[in-house]
Amino acid sequence: MKLYYSPGACSLSPHIVLHEAGLPCELVLASTKSHKLQDGTDYYAINPKGSVPLLELDSGERLTEGPAIVQYLADQVPDRKLAPPFGTLARYRLMEWLNFITSELHKSFGVFFTPGMPDEAKEIHRTRLRQKLQWVDGQLAGKAYLMGDDFTVADAYLFTVTNWADFTKVEIADLTNLQAFRQRMQERPSVQAAMKHEGLIK
C-alpha cells in the first residue's frame, strides 16, 4: 500500500491508524501547495481532487477521503479493534463521529486555510467552531476516548483536526476533557511515530 500525505494535514489521521494497525505502507509526500510529489510528478494525475490523504492498494485501486480510508484500514486487522464490527450499532456510532468530525470540524477549520478569507468571516467561523468543540468536550466527559475506554479510528481524526486550533486561534485550552483526550493521544506510540515521521515533533 501507499499513503499519499502532507505533514500535519488531515492525512495524519490514517498515518496514525497505519501505526495502530501495524500494516506496512509506503509513505509518499504530496505537497498541498504545489500539488506535486518530490520527484516532480503532478499529484492531480494521481488524485484529480488534489487533496490528501489517498491510499493506493496493492491492487492499484485508490481510496480517497479520510473517514473511508481509516475504516478500510481498521477492517484489515479486526483483531486490533480499531473499529467495531459492521452491522453493530457501535459501528454506526463510529460512522456518526467520523461524519461529524469531517463535516462540522474539519470543514470548519478549513475556512482558516482559504486564501483571501476576510477576518470578519474567520471570526464568525471561529465562534461557531468553538461551540462545536465545546459540545465535543462535553461528550468526552468520563471517557478516555470518543467511543469510551477504547481507542478507535475516530480518535485519530479528532486529534488531527484539533491540532489546528493554535494555528487558527481557536481557543481550546479551557476545554478540560478535550485537553485530557489530546494528552492521552500524544502519549500513544502510534501518534508519536506518525508525528515524528512528518516532522511535527522531534
Automatic annotation (TrEMBL):
PROSITE patterns recorded: GST_CTER, GST_NTER
Residue span, GST N-terminal domain: 1-81
UniProt xrefs under InterPro entries: Glutathione-S-Trfase_C-like (IPR010987), Glutathione-S-Trfase_C_sf (IPR036282), Glutathione_S-Trfase (IPR040079), Glutathione_S-Trfase_N (IPR004045), GST_C (IPR004046), Thioredoxin-like_sf (IPR036249)
UniProt GO molecular function: glutathione transferase activity
UniProt-listed SUPFAM superfamilies: GST C-terminal domain-like, Thioredoxin-like
EC number: 2.5.1.18
Enzyme class: transferase
Gene3D superfamilies for the chain: 1.20.1050.10, Glutaredoxin (3.40.30.10)
Keyword Transferase: yes
Signal peptide: none
GST C-terminal domain residues: 87-202
Entry keywords, A to Z: Transferase
PANTHER family hit by this protein: GLUTATHIONE S-TRANSFERASE GSTA, GLUTATHIONE S-TRANSFERASE-RELATED
Name the record gives this protein: Glutathione transferase GstA
Gene symbol of the encoding locus: gstA
